[in-house]
Design brief:
- The complex is a heterodimer of chains A (145) and B (412).
- Chain A is α+β, with helices and mostly antiparallel strands and 145 residues long.
- Chain A has a single domain, classed as Sufe protein. Chain: A, CATH 3.90.1010.
- Chain A is 42% helix and 17% strand.
- Chain A has helices spanning 9-16, 64-77, 82-96, 103-106, 125-144, and strands at 29-34, 41-49, 52-61.
- Chain A has a 3-stranded antiparallel β-sheet, covered by helices on one side.
- In chain A, helix 2 packs parallel to helix 5 (125-144) and helix 3 packs antiparallel against helix 5.
- The radius of gyration of chain A is 14 Å and the shape is globular.
- The relative contact order of chain A is 0.20.
- With 412 residues, chain B is α/β, with parallel strands linked by helices.
- Chain B is built from 14 helices and 17 strands.
- Classes of the chains: A alpha+beta (145), B alpha/beta (412).
- Chains A and B meet through helix 1 and helix 2 of A and helix 12 of B.
């Protein structure tokens, strides 16, 4: 595993860019996600319009992998339905766990495919999946409300 | 560069001769765990091949051999920290279990409502959580010694926090994050004057500096085997005999009893009262071999070797503008640990990038979340040295550190 395959251009750009790192006005839900073993700590904010994720953002801190993964995910989920978002979560986690390897199946992940190589780095897997688990939790809570 | 034969020492450690990703290994994560020399690996293997039995239990030859080896290991530990007798040496799983034992036994036996327990903000979680529980169960107060801007505990802080209500002070001799060596003697003297007892967590100090529990005056002293080249799963609790004798047993079961009836039991004398169940004998054998190895090199030579490496590394790091060292920037009362941050790069990325250069360090909160919060940092990266580290390791580290920011798209 070479560093080039992890710290790709896209991941570096998302790590440095703060376009998704902000608070929303009156979000429907703010869900905190935390990796106790390493300290990555994000809060994902979501605004729903019925079944559609109208807007999303995050605040918090963490490594380049967790920050880029969160930012890429937010770009993907804005404007799509809850069901579509859950499908993305499932596909992303499947990719990182190496359970989904078919490129056609991974296509829906668009830019998030850039994180595929993290699946070869056991120590960093939890950084990549933090935002996606947090999104799933947030949606589960939204559905209860 | 120092009084130890580094070339010979490095050859004793099979793990160090490996390459990772085609890179020479620079193992600088000794605060987490240390590597074992062949002498330790072989001692455990020899024991398993020739002497394995359950000590203190049988009349047959293997049980007798195992008993002799186990008791000898205890005597080697006694000498290592200069305890008065082997009755004061209790084998545990590690420093964490030793601290839990003292908290659950001495702590719960002696702490009453409104008493105070004093620890430092820089403690490892293993020296925080057991006291939180004692304080909660007994209605006592848990107070913290805070650090000055340099990361040190001042004499004023000791006098301000340790009060007439203080019954227990529990403190690490060396911080596992900042490498600071705390003023144990001053704390012990002041606490004793007030009538409190002192527990010293030696997990980071005992492997690297001369320990004399009698001179230190500590009532309890704990350390782990695996941080001084021994195996995981063996550690030590030293306690003053008069305190241990009055304490309730921690675990109950085989080998720690005198008489057992249907409704009652009396307990074995020290140290067996605190060693319920079959013990980690091969761990004790490994620990003995590790201590013998240290003594053969000379603990003062190890301290001096690490001091030189740490000082050189710190000077190099201080000359890099985007590196910030946490804690003291000089070697006064500081061991071989350096915590640092790299501007704009998260510590986990630092660790991943250094790993790709063959450099093993630790990143994270180092099981010291209250300290991280106190320093207002989410995490740091930590370099920690041991006797087998060389200038070559340091040069490899510095070269890798100078390349970190490039990987995240910064010009320098």
């Amino acid at each position: 595993m070479h560093l080039d395959e992890i710290y790709t251009q896209l991941i570096m750009e998302h790590n440095k860019s703060s376009h998704n790192k902000r608070h929303l006005n009156n979000p429907n839900i703010a869900e905190r996600g935390h990796n106790p073993s390493c300290g990555d700590d994000i809060t994902l904010e979501l605004k729903f319009n019925n079944n559609i994720i109208e807007d999303a953002s995050f605040v918090g801190h963490g490594c380049a992998i967790s920050q880029a993964s969160t930012s890429i995910m937010i770009d993907l989920i804005k404007g799509i339905s809850i069901e579509e978002a859950l499908k993305l979560v499932e596909t992303f986690i499947g990719m990182i766990k190496k359970e989904i390897t078919d490129d056609n199946e991974l296509e829906i992940l668009e830019d998030a495919v850039a994180l595929k190589n993290i699946s070869n780095m056991p120590a960093r897997v939890k950084c990549a999946v933090l935002a996606w688990h947090t999104l799933k939790e947030a949606i589960a809570k939204q559905n209860v409300q | 560069m120092s009084n130890l034969n580094l070339e010979k020492i490095i050859k004793d450690f099979p793990v160090l001769s490996q390459n990772f990703n085609g890179k020479r290994l620079a193992y600088l994560d000794n605060g987490a765990t240390t590597q074992k020399p062949s002498q330790v690996i072989n001692a455990m293997s020899e024991y398993n091949k020739h002497s394995h039995g359950n000590p203190h239990r049988g009349a047959h030859q293997l049980s007798i051999k195992a008993t002799e080896e186990y008791d000898l290991a205890k005597e080697v530990v006694r000498q290592f920290i200069n305890a008065k007798s082997i009755e004061e040496i209790i084998f545990t799983k590690g420093a964490t279990e030793s601290l839990n034992l003292v908290a659950q036994s001495y702590g719960l036996d002696n702490i009453k409502e409104n008493d105070e327990i004093v620890i430092a903000i820089s403690e490892h979680h293993s020296n925080i959580l057991p006291w939180q529980r004692v304080a909660r169960l007994r209605g006592a107060k848990l107070k913290y010694l805070y650090l000055n801007a340099e990361g040190r505990i001042t004499p004023e802080e000791i006098v301000n926090k340790i009060s007439k209500n203080t019954k227990i002070v529990s403190i690490a001799q060396m911080s596992n994050v900042l490498g600071t060596i705390n003023p144990i003697k001053e704390i012990v003297d002041y606490a004793h004057k007030i009538g409190a007892i002192v527990i010293v967590d030696g997990a980071q100090s005992a492997p690297h500096m001369k320990i004399d529990v009698q001179k230190l005056g500590a009532d309890f002293f704990v350390f782990s085997g695996h941080k001084l080249m021994g195996p995981m799963g063996i550690g030590v609790l030293y306690g003053k005999k008069e305190l241990l004798e009055k304490m309730s047993p921690y675990l109950l079961g085989g080998d720690m009893i005198e008489y057992v009836t249907e409704q009652d039991a009396t307990f074995a004398p020290l140290p067996f009262k605190f060693e319920a169940g079959t013990q980690n004998v091969e761990g004790a054998i490994g620990l003995k071999a590790a201590i013998n190895y240290i003594q053969q090199i000379g603990i003062d030579n190890i301290t001096e070797h690490e001091r030189k490496l740490t000082e050189y590394t710190m000077d190099k790091l201080l000359s890099i503008p985007y590196i910030k060292i946490q804690g003291p920037k000089n070697m006064d009362n500081k061991g071989g640990i350096i915590s640092f941050t790299v501007d704009d790069v998260h510590p986990h990325d630092v660790a991943t990038i250094l790993d790709s250069y063959g450099v093993a360090i630790r990143s994270g909160h180092h099981c010291a979340q209250p300290l991280m919060k106190y320093l207002n940092l989410p995490a740091t990266s930590r370099i920690s040295f041991y006797l087998y580290n060389s200038m070559e390791d340091v040069e490899q580290l510095i070269y890798a550190i100078k390349n970190i920011r490039k990987w995240l798209g910064y010009a320098s």
